[in-house]
């Protein structure tokens, strides 16, 4: 069952933006395994209350958050990231899709619903994680925005995108990848731009991502790991729908084409 604002009318969706890590692919498990492999020689472990504060953050910010819990460990942020990258790079080419994502992406693509990916991963990591999953990611036809992409040329912005929970990555995806006039993150929006934001649906698993989607003025379907719900409170932003798995998603409740019976 979904925990959602089911009794309220949902907006009619015209375009869809996906987060990637932990939502489309089982990468959060890799992050946990690798981090605990690095911490093990020091007799330490990343618990879910620590991990929750890392999810959705830019990598250096997440690393600083993690290491702040272990001040006695002689690891700098740079050394931790070097070890982490080396171990993760061995695992990324084998990471698997999460339940429900193949069906949903294929369905939206088949019905010509505009779709994009907005991820906090660096571009080089995106390729490591997805080049073996072309069956899914080729359906996006290059409509991917990564944390380190230079968006200034196409958006008339002179600054880099801020990480989630800021709404930047979702607004950039909607504007530059899908051609939607949603305005800029810090600029005052026209009524038409606010309405255009309201036509977007975001799928997220992390709390900062869910917050970023709501701050972007879009609808959000939140699919958090059940462990996350034990350590974090979603407020003040709340999702428009909360699911235990993407397998529970019903497109027609959002004005999208219904799945065909198999």
UniProtKB/TrEMBL annotation:
Q: What superkingdom does the record give?
A: Eukaryota
User: Which InterPro entries does this one have?
Assistant: HAD-like_sf (IPR036412), HAD_sf (IPR023214), PGP-like_dom2 (IPR023198)
Recorded hits in Pfam families, A to Z, give:
Hydrolase
Q: Spell out the protein name for this chain.
A: HAD-like protein
